Amino acid sequence: MAAPGELGEFALIEQVRRRLGAVGQSRRLVVGSGDDAAVTLPGGATATSIDSIVEAVHFRLETSDPAEIGHKALATALSDLAAMGAEPGEAYVALGLPDRLDAAAALALCDGLLALAARSGVALAGGDISASELLFVTVAVVGHADRAEDFVTRSGARPGDRVLASGAFGGAAAGLAWLERERGEAAINRGDPGLAAAVSEVIRRQRRPEPLLALGRALAPEVSAMIDISDGLGADLGHIGAASSVAIELEAGRIPVDPAARRVASELELDPEALALGGGEDYELAVTVDPPRSAAAVAAAAACGVELTEIGRVAAGGGVSLGGLSLPRTGGFEHRRGR
Amino acid sequence: MAAPGELGEFALIEQVRRRLGAVGQSRRLVVGSGDDAAVTLPGGATATSIDSIVEAVHFRLETSDPAEIGHKALATALSDLAAMGAEPGEAYVALGLPDRLDAAAALALCDGLLALAARSGVALAGGDISASELLFVTVAVVGHADRAEDFVTRSGARPGDRVLASGAFGGAAAGLAWLERERGEAAINRGDPGLAAAVSEVIRRQRRPEPLLALGRALAPEVSAMIDISDGLGADLGHIGAASSVAIELEAGRIPVDPAARRVASELELDPEALALGGGEDYELAVTVDPPRSAAAVAAAAACGVELTEIGRVAAGGGVSLGGLSLPRTGGFEHRRGR
């Protein structure tokens, strides 16, 4: 089957290829885009992750800023490297480009991705562009460390460890809830500047997550397990519990709720604690720490300008509980539901 | 927007995840699927490439064997590693799975991919599965070498080098031409077993390409530039010419045409030489060799059971010519047209 509108599509692909090919030397990249494969000089160990975002599942093209699609595709992949404590290295981008995407939008998508790559010290080392009836962006990212044991996995939590989390939760879920109610931007500004600011903030959390790469590297030497919060705080801590064969006991009232999420939840008559615990996509980091190293972890985060909050403890057993009540096991695979 | 048929899709994704997660320890893989990222111990240098195949562009679901889709997605990515002379290492697979794909088909796709991975010594180290209204398979592959200079790029050809190619050409293009004329399998067997065998062979070349990993590694020490033939022999040699700033002069009559392609081309009233030169997707390897090393390259290929044929010379200048006539510059980016 021939691709639709082939001439236009070829020209678009060529433009996008030039834009993406223009980027990124790094000290590890020997041969970049344009050969059969990119050649790099890795550290002693590498951490690699792959992620896709797909039109009509993760975003709607009609209501999205293309630059934010490019940003989010790379940000969610890099967040996995942050959770390993990896030095960010290279990104490889596979784009599926529909003919109905105009050139300006396709290039804006590239620019959103490239801006984050540049800011994160990531070289765009290779890519593949294909025609596709739906827009999709798949990003594989590679991070480095001197030794495999320098990376932080999900499996190192031990009974007695403390559970700490960066930042605050519920913002991305509140942003999604606002967008799904399809309240236009115009409605925000009518007479309530506090609400308008909160809405703007939670939409930003939903659409432009920031991978906490510096924080992950700073925390890595101090923590026993680490994960980024994509599925939801409860679900992702459940991944640590399962991988480490331990129970995670969260303390009621300790989970920091994003004030903007609280304001928007109130407007939407949603439970802000439920958004914080179950909403996901905040891309904060949660860690487990042996108590004697807890102060060092808090200090390492503070040096990155981030507050760590103790939200619970690791115990023997399994599962995740909140204030003594078991949380249902949700999530559990690398899959994000539609928005 | 919620993904269609969410419950069924979640169950499918979980099944596929289990199938893909079941595979592949390798000596380099420290942490496999299931953490934030896979952890590997690379060689001194890595070669990395990413490739997608997309429904309605590269295949039609209605007329494809799902196992062949999985096979081809990995095979085309691994062919890039073959062209670098890399030791195959790890693969990372991002799947977009439509709800209308039944579980048996999705698992067959996985099995096609996994069978090739196992046979190629490639560990499936990570993946991402997303709902998608169209089926797509993106594969990132990582290969290894002790030193960056052990990889063979497109840029090392020098005037005076010989141009050699493995195997024979035109098969995949003849297979595509046959499939596009939509001649059913039934028609093949009516009274002409020679044609039936040729059709079966060219369809296999189109749908089940084999990445020539052992050949690439055997040739690497002997050759100055190497590429896999995906866009077409003329176009891909043009990539070597451009990257090396040389002219590629092919000799008329020297390009080996696949006998099955010749038989099918005759039936379809197509020019077999044009299929061999321009058709692409044969995933053979083409190399340039300094003449004193030519015998060693031929012997290295013979040790892999592959015949190398001298098809031309490298000269000063630019472009690709055949029998003294310039070939138009086609292709030039990582993009395969629709089938």
Describe the structure.
Two copies of one chain form a homodimer. With 339 residues, the first copy, chain A, is an alpha+beta fold. Helix content of chain A is 38%, strand content 23%. Chain A has eleven helices and 13 strands. In chain A, the strands form three sheets. Chain A has a seven-stranded mixed sheet. Chain A folds into two domains: 6-150, 60s Ribosomal Protein L30, Chain: A (2-Layer Sandwich); 162-326, PurM-like C-terminal domain (Phosphoribosyl-aminoimidazole Synthetase, Chain A, domain 2), CATH 3.90.650. The first copy, chain A, has helices spanning 6-21, 66-84, 103-120, 171-180, 185-188, 193-207, 213-219, 233-244, 259-268, 272-278, 294-303, and strands spanning 29-31, 38-40, 45-54, 87-97, 123-131, 136-145, 162-166, 225-228, 247-250, 285-289, 308-315, 320-322, 325-326. In chain A, a hairpin with a 6-residue loop joins strand 1 and strand 2 (38-40). At the A-B interface, helix 1, strand 2, strand 3, helix 2 and strand 4 of A face helix 1, strand 2, strand 3, helix 2 and strand 4 of B.
